[in-house]
């Protein structure tokens, strides 16, 4: 069955009866629309796009505080949470965009992750950029990275100049013909947008003149945006005169876009019909003579949402006016990109419209008590439902902040909902995005249509989609922090195939993982399930039989580049005089914290300590402590030894080594049962391993060989029935710098991995510590819960305690279902 079918429709537009061929899924092979739809399919298959989003506990911080983060990752085509990527990279960039100050990696599990950034104490006041992205997103423009502004407010440094008090009457004006161009003799609809010098929309009044005659007057309708209709005439120049509404300031003149002598005009009606988005097309382009055997040239219209075609239609170019209905039932929630193509398949006109399907969730947070007192327990009931009121399971994040310790937020600010459904697919600053999704605003869809008539679009550009060949991507989809590298023969650059590798990873908390891998024909190897957290020491040893003369290299994990980053434009409207309490309270809180730290520093008198020297290998010996016997490996006893077992042979009483190489057998006297002798548990640095891992080690990498018997072996549990052999690797010679020691077949490096987990500190005043009883509490963020999950009944409960401040608490919650239905909720609670 073909993917697209013809379906004839009789449509009336402007009194003209038009026969349209509506393409439901596939056009005839000779039509350009066939090529267009194939190109869209190939493009979206090769370049599926992702959307990352970061929820932070606040938007303004003091130096030394912590930015708490929750990451969400979506597959852009269908908005499903949990894309294939397993890591979201987060950068904090300085105000001029030239330096990355902090960066981290957040592990994505089920499409969500959590982490934090600790701000240095010395950060100056300014507007910083926080951005989030995946390795796959690096293949495309950085314009599509998630970006938000974060204000750092330091009492020690002044506010940036020009942050307040800009002249709001200075403005810029843009005129944007619907569909892209004005055409002489055809009635067009022109959108316009006025933006003040501070970057926010400015209401204006104006009129258009031609030859000193007024053609039409206009007024903005919402945040400086508006539209009007007029028909340009040949030989006339049109000038618009505009001034801020309600003022008597002089008009500013703007030359209107010049009309084309011939072309296409497209008008989209997204409000007049409940069943369809109606697309009206008029043009004055003369058709070319049809080729023999063809039915004549056709114009094509394609509608798509998130790169997925939802409707296509064709009409003969001989028809000067026609209308195409796009059924709303075909359009999922989101921006509909409607494009008109000429008879050669070239895009000639485009318009964006919004498909509202109520595919969102309602989030309601209800305090169990209308007011609470300082340090009293607060219980919140969270409810998640779809737009029909049915409960849904959702993954949410919640931030509770002191309203008096944050800049007053702009109304209808950005949320996960507004980002996922609207702003992530538009360029430029979107003012008050929440306005268009608040059901209380009865005109929200009208104003949203006005926004899409005046806002830029760049995610899906036709010159790239219709290109003859698609460029190869440079960066793969990375399901996690994968450890990769290459093995070379000797010191050459000749790849070594079929080399066995033992990879040991040791984390800061002394936990270890051991992996084995084999190099391929290019000498490449991969450890896909590496648990890289914080700073991990990676030990790699290569061997091929008794040959260890290899060079091992490890690929560097991605580190963000230091390059110019254009901060997202957001009006710098922080009123610093309104933050007096924030600065005062936080200054006092930080002073108290500093005093507590000083009080903990106890000056000790000089004493003489009599104790045995600490065992430098205690961490590598694990639970069994001191061994029953130990061999210190040196150049003498390791001379001629090919394996660790050759050193052990005949050097420890009661330990028997038979055989050679990988076939060696080890037995500790007395270790036997009814089935015969039992080999000991083998370990490397206290980590249980297979005997082959010990046999493959180079004797040059070994510091000690420990033999464990009796009570020490009992610490190994059932694995220690045959005793234990623990091989302790070198940490370096006299300098202790093993990382810089060149050993054939061995590579040791430190790798920075995922952000280690850290819990948000929230005191519990029902059972306070002695210190919490006396410590003043004026936290700006009272509670941060990145992983609130509603159950099948749509319910969840969170609890925490108020601080000492008598204030208003802002409770902000946002999140999504597994199928990408986003939601956001806001409520307040009085502490008095």
Automatic annotation (TrEMBL):
InterPro entries per UniProt: MG2 (IPR002890), Plug_dom (IPR012910), Plug_dom_sf (IPR037066), TonB-dep_rcpt-like (IPR039426)
Domain TonB-dependent receptor plug: 630-723
Gene Ontology cellular-component terms listed: cell outer membrane
Subcellular location: Cell outer membrane
UniProt keyword Membrane present: yes
BP GO annotations: siderophore transmembrane transport
Domain of life according to the entry: Bacteria
Topology relative to the membrane: Multi-pass membrane protein
Pfam families linked to this entry: MG2 (PF01835), Plug (PF07715)
Macroglobulin domain span: 51-146
Keywords on record: Cell outer membrane, Membrane, Signal, Transmembrane, Transmembrane beta strand, Transport
A GO molecular-function descriptor: siderophore uptake transmembrane transporter activity
Main localization of the protein described in the UniProt heading: membrane
Family listed: Belongs to the TonB-dependent receptor family.
Name of the featured protein: Uncharacterized protein
Organism, scientific name: Fibrella aestuarina BUZ 2
